[in-house]
Design brief:
Elements: E1 27-36, E2 46-48, H1 52-60, H2 67-81, H3 88-98, E3 104-108, E4 114-116, E5 120-126, H4 134-137, H5 139-143, H6 146-170, E6 180-182, H7 191-201, H8 211-221, H9 235-239, H10 246-256, E7 262-265, H11 271-282, H12 284-288, E8 296-299, H13 305-320, E9 323-324, E10 330-331, E11 336-340, H14 346-358, E12 366-370, H15 372-375, E13 385-394, E14 397-400, E15 419-422, E16 428-431, E17 444-448, E18 451-452, H16 458-465, H17 469-472, H18 479-484
Parallel strand pairs: 6-12, 7-8, 8-11, 11-12
Antiparallel strand pairs: 1-5, 1-13, 2-4, 3-5, 3-17, 9-10, 13-14, 15-16, 17-18
Length: about 500
């Protein structure tokens, strides 16, 4: 249910206030769609659809128009435009005829589904011919879907990289869902960004420090606890002891958290000295006392990520030894692991894991934390997200419409009513011009006339987003077999 103090009439770009005056006479339906445009050579060829349910529940369900909100908007836009352009009469008719609920239908792909770029992700249309102007009035809010979609997509790309290296160097995917920890809470622009981005990451992983994302998953996606963390030190809890007492600071953490894993940032002064002379000597016995279920996770936090981590793991090998797993790769003792949270993005995590592998180390030894590259270093153009009108009706007669700028053909839009289907080759494709068969359409009605029609749980969404086996270990089958090979890896979540 939309919050009482949220005024939907003020949640749009200013110029949209004037659009009801600009449509053709006798128009009675506007139909628009959202997509992540395809882009040749892009790093991302597919996207994970996530986040629409939150926006619908938070802002669009129930009565969103009241007389008080109409009057507030009327005054605001009069001051803003310095002329009377606000459609007070139109909004009051929505209030009177529909009890302030939006006569809109939204159809969308199920949340968590993996969709190749260039396909329709959701459509929007008015259900009452008198309120055709509503369809694109809500574009502003709905296009903000770019953010959770992009975060969820990037998070899943991390998962592909981690899964491949984990499988190659350990023979299994055990622990994959804990391999990438969300460090991004402080690096985003707002609490809502942290919530949306944090929840998007939790579609793919169960490891986070972003409380806002956990709360969103709980309140809007029915998951009591979607992610987990462990006690961990920060620089203030180490340097407050003074440089000469770094060993005492480390020991205090071990004392206070004797059971369960604990992470200790160890680069306040000299990460290599800390690993060799404090962890690997003065506190060596204390470290070795800890079991697999209470392992020490050492955190470097400066320097070149790959070079520093390789040096740290070599020092720890010298001090604590290692063993070989079934794939022949080296693994530190079960009471000792490393988390690298500085300088992590899709490129650096691939580089680090490849260098570890080249040096004979299993990906089992390391966890990663990611902040800005996961939740902040992205924008609407990362996946070329767009919302366009493709169909209108005037006097009950339909017309397919589109844009096709001569200066940029890539911004051409789709035409007519759209549906999403799987073709005979097993590929997802968008069918334009109303030519799709309803029984083949993968778009599902999720919102209609002010009500949420479909309510997905995070559990369902995670199942939809799971890695396919060919994303972990590329097969040698022919192209068609690969396209049809949709076996899902079980037990990741």
């Amino acid at each position: 249910m939309a919050a009482h103090d949220f005024n939907f009439l003020l949640a749009t770009d200013s110029y949209k206030i004037t659009h009801y005056k600009q449509y053709p006479p006798n128009v009675n339906k506007i139909y628009s769609y959202f997509e992540c445009r395809g882009k040749e050579g892009s790093q991302f060829s597919e996207v994970v659809f996530f986040g629409l349910q939150y926006l619908l529940k938070k802002y669009l369900t129930g009565q969103v128009i009241t007389e008080e909100k109409i009057q507030e908007a009327k005054l605001f836009y009069q001051m803003h435009f310095k002329q009377a352009v606000f459609d007070e009469e139109g909004w009051r008719k929505v209030l009177e005829k529909h009890d302030g609920r939006l006569p809109i239908r939204i159809k969308a792909v199920p949340e968590g589904r993996i969709i190749p770029r260039g396909n329709v992700l959701f459509t929007v249309e008015n259900t009452d011919p008198n309120f055709y102007w509503l369809t694109n009035y809500i574009e502003t809010m709905l296009v903000q879907m770019w953010y959770p979609i992009t975060v969820c997509t990037i998070s899943r790309e991390f998962k592909k990289i981690l899964a491949k290296h984990l499988k190659d160097t350990s023979g299994s995917l055990e622990g994959l869902d804990l391999k990438l920890h969300d460090f991004g809470y402080r690096g985003v622009s707002s609490q809502e960004s942290a919530a949306l981005g944090g929840a998007a990451h939790l579609v793919n992983f169960c490891s986070t420090d972003t409380v806002a994302g956990l709360l969103m998953a709980q309140r809007y996606y029915g998951c009591p606890m979607a992610g987990f963390s462990i006690p961990a030190a920060e620089h203030s809890t180490i340097i407050s002891w003074g440089k000469s007492r770094e060993k005492d600071a480390f020991e205090r953490v071990l004392d206070e958290f004797s059971s369960g894993p604990v992470s200790v940032v160890s680069d306040s002064y000299d990460i290599f000295n800390a690993c060799k002379h404090i962890w690997g000597d003065k506190l060596k016995e204390r470290v070795m006392e800890r079991g697999q279920d209470s392992c020490l996770v050492i955190r470097p936090d400066s320097g070149d990520p790959a070079e520093t981590l390789i040096e740290v793991i070599k020092i720890l090998e010298e001090c604590f030894g290692c063993s070989r797993n079934s794939m022949g790769y080296k693994v530190l003792p079960s009471y000792l692991r490393i988390i690298q949270g500085d300088g992590i993005d899709l490129n650096s995590v691939e580089e680090i894991l490849q260098k570890l592998s080249d040096e004979g180390w299993s990906a089992e030894n390391v966890f990663f934390g990611c902040g800005s590259a996961l939740l902040q270093k992205l924008n609407r153009d990362t996946l070329s997200c767009a919302f366009k009108c493709s169909y209108v009706e005037s006097n009950g007669k339909g017309m397919d419409v589109y844009k096709q700028p001569v200066t940029d053909p890539s911004k051409g839009s789709k035409r007519g009513r759209l549906s999403l289907r799987r073709n005979s080759d097993g590929l997802l494709e968008t069918v334009e011009r109303g030519a799709g068969k309803p029984e083949e359409d993968l778009l599902v009605t999720v919102f209609e006339n002010g009500s949420l029609v479909q309510d997905y749980s995070l559990e369902e969404i995670r199942k939809n987003a799971r890695l396919r086996d060919e994303e972990v270990t590329p097969t040698l089958h022919n192209h068609k077999e690969e396209l049809l090979h949709n076996h899902i890896i079980n037990g990741i979540h």
